[in-house]
Amino acid sequence: MSREPNAPLIAVMDEAKVSNKGLAKRMTDEAAQRGIDLGTTHIAVKRWRDGAGIKPETAALMADVLSAKLGRHVAPGDLGFFHHTTSSTPEPVGYPGTVPDVLSLLDGLTHQQADAPASEQLIVADGDLNSAVLSWMIGRPDGIQADRPTPRRVGMRDVRAVREAAGLFMQLDFKYGGGHGHKALRHYFREDVLPLLDASYSEKVGTALFGAAAEISQLLAWTAYDVGNHKLAHRYLTSTLRLSQVIDDRMFGARILGNLSHQANYLSNHAQAIQLARAAVEGAKGRATPRAMALNSAMEARALSNAGDGIAAARAMKEAERHFGHADAGEDPAWLGYFDEAELMGELCHCFRDLKMRREAVDQAQRAVDSTDPKYARTLGFCRMVLAQSQLLNGELEAAVTTASLAVDGGDSLQSTRFQRYITDFQTEVSVHATNPTVADFNEKVHAALTRLDEDDD
To answer: Is-contact 155 205, C-beta < 8 A?
Structure first.
C-alpha cells in the first residue's frame, strides 16, 4: 500500500538542518542518556519521512531531540504523528451483521499474530464507530438456536471448562503481560471454543456458552492491546461486542464499549473515548450491577480527565464512587470479580494525575498501591508509575524516582508494552534532571531491566 510522505516531519528536519543519519544518531544518543537502547537508524528515519507509523514513545523522543536542536518546543503532532490522517486510512469497524458473520470473523482473527509489526496509531472513522455503537444499542438479540441436529452435544461441563481457561489466561495476562499467552489463547479459542458454538445445546447451555466465548474473545483483545497491536485489538473488541448481542448480555456489551473507550483514551482519541464510555453507561442502565456501573463510570471519568474536562470528570468520578458504594448489593458475574476497591482507586488516580490535581493524585495513587494485590503485577506497576508521576507533579523528584524504581523492580510487568510506555513517559518527564545521580541510576536500572527482558525472550 502506498503512503504519502510525512511533509511536517520533512519540513522540521529541513528547518533543523539535520539529515536522516544525523537525526538517528541524536535520537540514539538521547535514548542512551535515558537508559534506553533505541536502535534507530537512518533507514527508520527514511521510513518515517515516507509516512510509516511510529511508536508514541519514539515520536516523543524525536520531538525532544528536534526541540533541543531548534531551541523551541516541538510536539509529535508538529512532526505529523498521531494528529493527522492524510497518510493513514481509517480502520473499518466492520460490525458483523449476523451470527455466522461474527463467528467467521473471529475465526479469521485467530490466524493473526499479535506480535506482528504494527503501528500504535489507529484511526477509526467517527461514522463507522457511531454505526457500530448504534447497532449494539438498538439491535435485537439473535437468540440461541437450541437443540440443533448436530453430532456433538455441549453441556455445562464444557462451559465451565471454557470459563476456567479464561480465568487461567487472565491470571497470566495480569502477571506477565499480554504477549505471554496470546498465541496459546488464540489457538485454544479457534480449536476448542469456536467449534462448540456450532454444536448442539440447550438454550440455557447455549446462552452460557456464548457468554464464556465472549470472555475469551475479550481477553484476546486485551492481550493484543497490551502488546501494542491496536488494530487487531480493536477488531476483537468490535467482534466481541457483536457476540454479546447474540444473548442480549447488555452488561458485558457495555464492558466491551468501556474497553474500546480505554483503548481510544490510550491513543489520545479523546472524543471517541468519551462517546464510547457514555454509550457504555447509557447502554447498561437497568441491566448491570452496581459494580459494573462503577466501572463504566470510571471509564467515562478517565476519558474526560484525559481530555481536560475537570467538571464533567468530577461528576463521573462521583458516579463511580456512588455505584461502588452499593457494589455488594449486586450479584456480579465472575468476569467482574477483579474490580475491587483497589482497582477503582487505580482508575481514579489516573484521573487526578491527568487533571494535574497534585495532592489528590498522590493520595489516591498511594492508596491504590497500598491496596493492590501483588498478584495483579501489571496493575500494581501502573499504579506505582502514576504515583511516581504524581509525586513529580508535586516537585518530589527523589520520591518519584524511588517509586518508579520499585515499579521497574517488579520485573514481570515490563513484558507489557503499555507498562513500558508508562516507564518511557516518566523518563521523558524527568529528562530535564538527567544529570541528577538518582535519575541517572534509574535510567541505568531501566536499561538493565529491558536488556534482561530481551535476553529472556531469546
So the answer is: yes
The verdict on 65 and 97 lying in the same domain is no
CA neighbor of 49 nearest in space, from 82, 86, 80? 80
Residue-averaged pLDDT of the chain: 89
| Whole-number Å distance between alpha carbons of 6 and 238 | 30
Residues 114 and 193 in one domain: yes
Whether residue 46 is found in the same domain as residue 140? no
Same domain, 64 and 160: no
* 48 and 168 belong to one structural domain: no
Domain count for the chain, please give it. Answer: 2
Write the CB contacts of 354 (distance below 8 Å, at least 6 apart in sequence).
302, 305, 306, 308
3-state secondary structure of 308: coil
Residue 104 CA, chain-centre distance (Å), reads 25
User: Residues 388-414: pLDDT tens digits?
Assistant: 999 999 999 999 999 999 999 876 555
**Angle, in degrees to the nearest 10, between helices 290-306 and 250-266:** 20
Range of the domain at 30: 7-79
CA distance 86 to 329: 50
Rounded to 5°, angle at Cα 120 from 116 and 128 = 100
Regarding pTM above 0.85, the answer is: no
